[in-house]
């Protein structure tokens, strides 16, 4: 087997750098590219050295497994600073997960069958053009982290009731709110809509329809299509412990029937994301 050392170094470096970037972003760490370059360089030296050693020595399967994955698990140590051991462990697991995913993608596209001594599925790293592997690393880092971010957003919504205070002019009302990922209502401006019980809205808007502008919002359910009347209020304050998240110019629709559960308003999912409260700690 012929090994092109320059291509092997470039491929290892780009792959390690891309996967480390994804792992650090996954744990919401601060990306410092000089650290990623340092860690990827270290991984490249160890990886290339081990590959060359394997050309001359046959390591036992158990030793081969331990060397490969222990080195991979330690690479994030030099790629970022971790305040907690838990964060480092999660980052290492993420790095290994991305490594398996990336290898799986390459295997799917470049795996082949050779039959020198029977049919055997092989993954020929050296058979992949260097430019393709480098481009694949960049593509994986760019799109992979965006996909993970989109998926993680579903878990960032606080799945509990929250104390809310609604303001309209000099009036205010305190209600319990519930963040519902199924609330996808939008007003004419394209902004998300909270759904409140009639009593809460009456406490804010005493003249109700007389002089207060309102709009009708179409609601589609499995039972058909209906309408809700919606008003604009000045702001809404949402509390999580001692932390507060304030949202200005909120559209509130009036529920035609009492809301189930111990809450008086259904919040859009974007109103109750954890990061909105963490920023104020």
Your description of this structure?
Strand 3 and strand 4 (171-179) form a beta hairpin. The strands form 2 sheets. Strands 3-4-9-5-8-7 form a 6-stranded mixed β-barrel. The chain has a two-stranded antiparallel sheet with strand order 1-2. It has 281 residues and is of the alpha+beta class. The protein is 46% helix and 23% strand. It folds into 2 domains: 5-156; 161-278, Cathepsin D, subunit A, domain 1 (Beta Barrel). It has 8 helices and 9 strands. The protein starts with a helix and ends with a helix.
Q: How many domains, as an integer?
A: 2
The backbone outline, from C-alpha atoms, is elongated
* Average pLDDT for all residues: 76
Q: Quick one: biggest sheet?
A: 6 strands, mixed, barrel
Strand order of the largest sheet: 3-4-9-5-8-7
Poorly predicted regions:
113-126
In terms of structural class, how would the helical and strand content be classed? alpha+beta
Number of strands: 9
Q: What distance lies between the first and last C-alpha atoms, to the nearest angstrom?
A: 58 Å
Alpha plus pi helix count:
8
* Share in helix: 40-55%
N-to-C order of helices and strands: HHHHHEEHEEEHEEEEH
Rg = 27 Å
